[in-house]
């Protein structure tokens, strides 16, 4: 596929106020880039060909992929999140909403009429409590890796032992923490996940989610219902209706369809989480195949015939049709790397690493205290010292230490009874690092590949195809 990278550096749309505070000043330096690539210029896609739009809202930015029914990419774009402040904290919902509509502006106009289905993935357990009449957020969202330990004792008292919700970063802990705050508008409130809320902006039907996003609020995808111990809770009425990922919800809202020039019959489908979208993109279909997403975080998904859930280690199973995606998400990964190196530095330093050589540096790379998997410890401190003089050596030690965490994670899944992993595909920003892939192969003792499609947005586009096929049956 011949692609043309178009990079435009955008100045912040809303000038960030000059102020004494370091957070603002740090933000002023932040520019945002939009990069976009078009599909195979030699193969002009037939004007009658149906196209499918997938959007991925990850930790550091969002992307879209437009594919045809063969899975050929016709256009892609990505954008870092614009930074807005609300008081001293980031205004994430404003940032995500602006990113959604600015990415739609980047969908090539000549392709818009051919897009017949849209889906979105988002970060898991990123939780928004909304006004159920207006859809307006009732406060800031709880991010995917945010922990609400205040709610944990109550959640542990109602859920089965070691249930997936029994961790401070679960969606249910975030809901209970919000519910327990005195004097909030509890009656007309509704819980949605990041992907659900972004999809709602496109379709306008409040209260819809998918069984991947709903897992961490307590939904049981095996029996396709919320469990009795959750249904009897006073906040049960806040929970959304749950459908399989890639289920048609309704047509694109008329105001959006006419503003962007999409087709009358363009539908919006339920989404999933970012690491499951990355798994779908890798198209691993046999038990024993796994996908490690090396994004801001390290998310592991192993296709297994057996379901394993154990919050003591941050292990849970997502449903994927008739099988299980067993795994979890560590806070190690790209976010730590980005704290220390730019992407260009990562590329240049990695070129100098000898991946066959073992690094003796032993770190636990975390962006801040707190780990979810394979060690579930909200107080686990980062370990990134001693720092050698040579940055090549330092990066080698960090990449190898992250690979050891990955190896421990797969070893834990095996101990807990999941199918034996025999092949690992890599998705996310870290997948571009060939030296890291070789380090991981050595440490894991397994064949490790870069997935053909490393972007979660491609997986979301596959869900859009699935939804459209549902719709025309
Ligand atoms: N050459 C590289 N080697 C390793 N990691 C990289 C490289 N280039 C970028 N990254 C990491 O990839 C991450 C971004 O990946 P991405 O999948 O976009 O993350 P997310 O979806 O979580 O926002 C960044 O944290 C960055 O440090
Ligand atoms: O780390 C994350 C954000 O990138 C998410 O936690 C990740 O999506 C893992 O959650 P899930 O397994 O539910 O997809």
UniProtKB/TrEMBL annotation:
E.C. number: 2.7.1.47
One of the GO biological process terms: xylulose metabolic process
InterPro entries tied to this protein: ATPase_NBD (IPR043129), FGGY_C (IPR018485), FGGY_N (IPR018484)
Cofactor: a divalent metal cation
Superkingdom per UniProt: Eukaryota
Residues in Carbohydrate kinase FGGY C-terminal domain copies: 318-465
Protein name, as recorded: D-ribulose kinase
Organism, as annotated: Clitoria ternatea
UniProt GO cellular component terms: cytosol
């Amino acid at each position: 596929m011949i692609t043309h990278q178009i990079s435009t550096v955008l100045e912040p749309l809303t000038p960030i106020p000059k102020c004494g505070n370091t957070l603002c000043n740090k933000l002023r330096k932040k520019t945002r880039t939009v990069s976009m690539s078009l599909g195979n210029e030699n193969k002009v896609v037939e004007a009658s060909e149906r196209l499918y739009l997938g959007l991925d809202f990850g930790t550091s930015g969002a992307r879209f992929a437009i594919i045809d029914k063969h899975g050929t990419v016709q256009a892609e774009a990505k954008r870092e999140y614009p930074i807005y402040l609300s008081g001293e904290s980031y205004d994430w919902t404003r940032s995500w909403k602006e990113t959604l509509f600015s990415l739609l502006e980047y969908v090539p106009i000549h392709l818009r009429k051919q897009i017949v289905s849209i889906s979105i993935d988002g970060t898991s357990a990123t939780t928004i409590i909304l006004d159920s009449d207006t859809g307006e957020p009732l406060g800031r969202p709880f991010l995917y890796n945010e922990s609400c330990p205040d709610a944990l004792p109550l959640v542990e008292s109602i859920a089965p032992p070691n249930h997936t919700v029994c961790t401070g970063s679960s969606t249910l802990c975030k809901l209970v923490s919000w519910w327990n705050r005195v004097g909030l508008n509890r009656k007309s409130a509704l819980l949605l996940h990041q992907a659900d809320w972004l999809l709602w902006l496109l379709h306008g039907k409040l209260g819809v989610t998918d069984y991947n996003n709903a897992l961490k609020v307590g939904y049981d995808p095996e029996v396709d219902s919320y469990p009795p111990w959750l249904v009897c809770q006073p906040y049960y009425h806040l929970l959304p209706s749950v459908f399989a990922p890639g289920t048609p919800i309704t047509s694109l809202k008329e105001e959006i369809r006419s503003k962007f020039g999409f087709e009358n019959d363009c539908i919006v489908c339920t989404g999933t989480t970012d690491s499951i979208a990355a798994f779908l993109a890798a198209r691993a279909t046999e038990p024993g195949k796994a996908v490690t997403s090396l994004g801001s975080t390290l998310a592991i998904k192993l296709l297994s015939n057996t379901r394993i859930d154990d919050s003591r280690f941050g292990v849970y199973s997502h449903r994927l049709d008739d099988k299980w995606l067993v795994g979890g998400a560590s806070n190690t990964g790209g976010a730590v790397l980005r704290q220390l190196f730019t992407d260009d530095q990562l590329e240049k330093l990695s070129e100098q690493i000898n991946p066959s050589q073992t690094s003796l540096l032993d770190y636990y790379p975390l962006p801040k205290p707190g780990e979810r998997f394979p060690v579930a410890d909200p107080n686990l401190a980062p370990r990134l010292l001693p720092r050698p003089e040579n940055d090549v050596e330092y990066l080698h030690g960090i990449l190898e230490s992250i690979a050891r965490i990955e190896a421990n994670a797969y070893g834990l899944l095996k101990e807990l009874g999941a199918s034996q992993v025999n092949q690992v595909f890599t998705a996310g920003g870290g997948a571009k690092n060939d030296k890291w892939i070789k380090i991981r192969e050595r440490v894991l003792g397994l064949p490790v590949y870069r997935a053909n499609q490393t972007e979660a947005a491609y997986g979301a586009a596959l869900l859009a195809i699935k939804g459209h096929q549902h719709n025309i049956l």
